[in-house]
Amino acid sequence: MSTAIGEQQHRLRLELFERVYDLILPMPTTTCSVTALLPSARTIVHAVADAAAQAALKKGKKVTCGPGCGACCRQLVPISVVEASALVTAIDAGPAEYRKRIRRRFSQTVHRMETLGMLDPSAPRPRLALQGYGHDSSSLWLDVSKRYFAAAIACPILENESCSLHVARPLVCRAYNVTSSPKRCRHLNRGAEALPRPLDVESALSRTAHALDGSPPHLIPLPLAMEWSESCPDAFAEQHDAETMLARLLDELLSQSKE
Ligand code: SF4
Predict the structure, then answer these.
(1) Is residue 155 lining ligand 1, measured as CB closer than 6 Å?
(2) Which residue minimizes the CA distance to atom 4 of ligand 1?
(3) d(CA 76, CA 222)
(4) Residue 27's pLDDT band (boundaries 50, 70, 90)?
(5) Of all protein residues, whose CA lies closest to atom 1 belonging to ligand 1?
């Protein structure tokens, strides 16, 4: 990966699966909040998803994801708190009836997770920790995601088996594609073949926000987005130099590409 940040334009040259992508990253030229990194993060994720899909195609495997299939929208979706904040802003920008309906679904989903023992109802807000079995954060996440999927809890944003916030959907939702039959996505351990993701952009964004604003460095489950945003309304109020922020995000990605 190589980068070149200009005065007006931010360019990123990415080599992914033997393809070179010259990306123009949209960034304001002045100071801005860390949420202004999202359009750039999305541009990078789209390139990663495209490269993985093209590489699969070369091997004769086609992406089978399509409109109206919300099978993967019953997984425990990991998002950065930057995305949580942006998701809630997008929900609140919708019509009053939509806002009310989606907010109610978030409450119901969180309540269901509490009932199933995945969240501690009495823990201080915002809750960032899940309840489950595991010796570290990844095995704990895995344990809860298996139980979450088994309980068939639909994403609070899913409507008529489609994402009701397609333009503002999280980074991981943009990158997740499979080449196997959609039927396999409806069951855990049925061997759904997800495309590889050489860069974890949401984690890089999370660490960037942590370094700049002191927000949690780890990802949270999507159903906690509303709670997090309401508990920390000013989390990203601080303004930063746009180029410094972008450089930090790219550094985080560079360190992943070296691993
Ligand atoms: S945000 Fe949209 S794409 Fe992502 S899991 Fe929810 S409904 Fe599905």
Answers:
(1) yes
(2) 173
(3) 7
(4) confident
(5) 169
Ligand 1 centroid vs 155 CA: distance in angstroms?
A: 6
Cis upstream peptide for 233 (omega within 30°) = no
pLDDT, tens digit (0-9, with 9 covering 90-100), for 103-138:
999 999 999 999 999 999 999 999 988 999 988 899
Whole-number Cα distances in Å, 203 to 26, 174, 242: 19, 14, 19
User: Mean of the per-residue pLDDT values for the chain?
Assistant: 93
Query: Is it the case that residue 2 has pLDDT exceeding 80?
Result: no
Q: Is residue 36 within 6 Å of ligand 1 at its C-beta?
A: no
- Contacts of residue 124, defined as CB under 8 A and 6 or more positions apart, other chains included, come to none
Name the more confident of 191 and 168. Answer: 168
Structure tokens at 175: 């990158």
